UniProtKB/TrEMBL annotation:
InterPro entries: MFS, MFS_dom, MFS_Efflux_Transporters, MFS_trans_sf. The chain crosses the membrane at residues 20-42, 54-75, 87-116, 215-238, 250-269, 281-299, 305-329, 341-363, 369-390. It holds the Pfam family MFS_1. This is Major facilitator superfamily (MFS) profile domain-containing protein. It comes from the Bacteria. Its main location: membrane. Residues 20-394 form the Major facilitator superfamily (MFS) profile domain. Keywords: Cell membrane, Membrane, Transmembrane, Transmembrane helix. It is a multi-pass membrane protein. It is found in: Cell membrane.
Length: 399
C-alpha cells in the first residue's frame, strides 16, 4: 500500500476537494438565495401581498443593512469558532429565514424574515474563505474560491428558473419553502462531512478594527459595486414585466441568465486573478459593468438588449466580488483572513442595502432609464476606485 501523500492517495484528496467545493458552493448559494427569490418572484409578491415596488426594494435594504452591520462580528465569530460551526449556523439560519418569507402574510413579517437572512450573509464569505485556507493547497485556492463564489450566482439561477417554474405551478410560497427545506438538509450534511473544529482556535482572534490598506480600498469598491448589482437583482424582473412587456416567468429567466453567466464569470476571472494580475482586474470588471448598465437602459428601445445586459452584469459586475475575495486571501495578514473577508463583505452588503432604496423612486415612477443611468454611475465610480488603488499599489505608495 502506498504511504500517505503518494499518488495512491491523490484520488481520495481529489474527492475530498470536490466534496468541499460542492458544500462551500451550496453555502454561498443559500446565503443570498432570499435576495434572488425576492427579485425573481417580485411581480408575484407585489400582486399577492400588495407590497409596492418601494417596499420590495426595502426588503433588500433591510436584509443587507443587517448583513453589513453583522459582518465584522461575523468575521470574528468565524475566527473564534471555526468554519464547521459557522457553516452549520449559516445554513440553519438560511433555512429559517426562507421558511419565514414563505409564511409571511404581509410586509412586516417579510421584512423581519429578510433581516434574519442578514446573518447567513454576514457569515458566508469569512466562513467559506477560512475553510479554503484551512483545507486547500495554495496553488488551488484561486480556482476553488472562484467555484465557491459562483455559488451566489447558482442561487440566482435556481431562483430565476427552477424555483420560478415551481412558483408558476404551485405558488410562490411552495417555491420558497422548498428552498428552505433544501437549506436545512445542507446544514445536516455540513455537520456530518466537515472536520470537527478545534475546541480553541490555533491563535487568538485579532481584535476588531477599521479596514486598512487594501481592505479599505476594496470596501469602498465593493460598496459601489454592490449598490449597482443589488438594484439589478431587485428590479430587473419587474422592469421586464412593467416596461418591456415580458411575462412573469420570462422576466424571472433574466435573473437565471444573470446567474449562469455570473457562475462562468466568477470561475474564469478568479482563475485569472494571479498575483501581479489580480490587482488590475477590479477596475477592468467595473468598466465592463458600466457597459452592462448602458445595455439595460437601451433595452427600452430594443427589448433584446435586456438579455445582453443581463449577461454583461453576470460576466463583469457579479464576477468582480469573487476577484476581491481572491485578493483578500492572497494578501491578508496571518490570522486576519476571516475578519478582512468580513470587512470587504460589509462594504458589499452596505451597497446592497443602499442601492435598491436609491433606485426605488425610479421604479415607482416608471423612470427605469434614469435608474439604470444611476447604476452606471455607481459602476463608473467603482472603476475609478479600483484603478486608483491599483496605480498606488503598483508604485508602492501607502494606501
Amino acid at each position: 500500500m502506498a504511504p500517505p501523500g503518494t499518488a495512491a492517495s491523490a484520488p481520495t484528496a481529489d474527492r475530498g476537494d470536490r466534496r468541499l467545493v460542492v458544500l462551500l458552493t451550496g453555502a454561498m448559494a443559500f446565503s443570498m438565495l432570499q435576495l434572488f427569490l425576492l427579485g425573481a418572484l417580485g411581480p408575484r409578491l407585489v400582486a399577492d401581498l400588495g407590497v409596492s415596488p418601494t417596499v420590495l426594494g426595502l426588503t433588500t435594504t433591510v436584509g443587507f443593512g443587517t448583513a453589513a452591520l453583522l459582518s465584522p462580528i461575523g468575521g470574528r465569530i468565524v475566527d473564534l469558532t471555526g468554519p464547521r460551526r459557522s457553516l452549520v449556523l449559516l445554513l440553519t439560519a438560511s433555512a429559517a429565514a426562507l421558511a419565514a418569507i414563505g409564511a409571511a402574510p404581509g410586509a412586516t413579517v417579510l421584512l423581519c424574515a429578510v433581516a434574519l437572512g442578514g446573518l447567513p450573509q454576514a457569515l458566508a464569505n469569512p466562513a467559506t474563505n477560512k475553510a479554503v485556507l484551512a483545507a486547500v493547497a495554495p496553488e488551488r485556492r484561486g480556482a476553488v474560491t472562484g467555484l465557491k463564489q459562483s455559488g451566489v450566482q447558482l442561487g440566482a439561477f435556481a431562483a430565476g428558473l427552477p424555483l420560478a417554474a415551481l412558483a408558476a405551478g404551485l405558488g410562490w410560497r411552495a417555491a420558497v419553502w422548498t428552498a428552505a427545506a433544501a437549506a436545512l438538509l445542507a446544514a445536516g450534511w455540513a455537520h456530518r462531512v466537515l472536520p470537527v473544529d478545534p475546541v480553541r482556535p490555533a491563535a487568538p482572534a485579532p481584535a476588531l478594527r477599521a479596514p486598512r490598506g487594501m481592505t479599505a480600498w476594496l470596501c469602498a469598491y465593493s460598496l459601489l459595486l454592490g449598490a449597482g448589482i443589488a438594484s439589478v437583482n431587485t428590479y430587473l424582473a419587474l422592469y421586464g414585466v412593467r416596461e418591456l412587456g415580458l411575462g412573469s416567468t420570462v422576466a424571472a429567466a433574466l435573473v437565471a441568465v444573470l446567474g449562469l453567466t455570473g457562475i462562468a464569470g466568477r470561475v474564469c476571472w478568479s482563475r485569472a486573478a494571479r498575483p501581479g494580475r489580480a490587482e488590475r482586474l477590479p477596475a477592468l470588471l467595473a468598466g465592463g459593468a458600466l457597459l452592462a448598465a448602458a445595455l439595460l437602459a437601451a433595452a427600452q428601445w430594443a427589448v433584446p438588449l435586456v438579455w445582453a445586459g443581463a449577461v454583461a452584469v453576470g460576466v463583469f459586475a457579479v464576477s468582480a466580488n469573487a476577484v476581491s475575495m481572491v485578493l483578500v486571501m492572497q494578501r491578508a495578514t496571518p490570522g486576519r483572513a476571516g475578519q478582512d473577508s468580513a470587512l470587504v463583505a460589509a462594504g458589499f452588503f452596505g451597497g446592497f442595502a443602499v442601492g435598491p432604496a436609491v433606485f426605488a423612486p425610479f421604479a415607482e415612477s416608471g423612470h427605469y432609464g434614469a435608474g439604470w443611468l444611476l447604476v452606471g454611475a455607481e459602476f463608473a465610480l467603482a472603476a475609478v476606485v479600483g484603478y486608483t488603488w491599483a496605480r498606488r499599489d503598483a508604485r508602492g505608495e501607502p494606501a
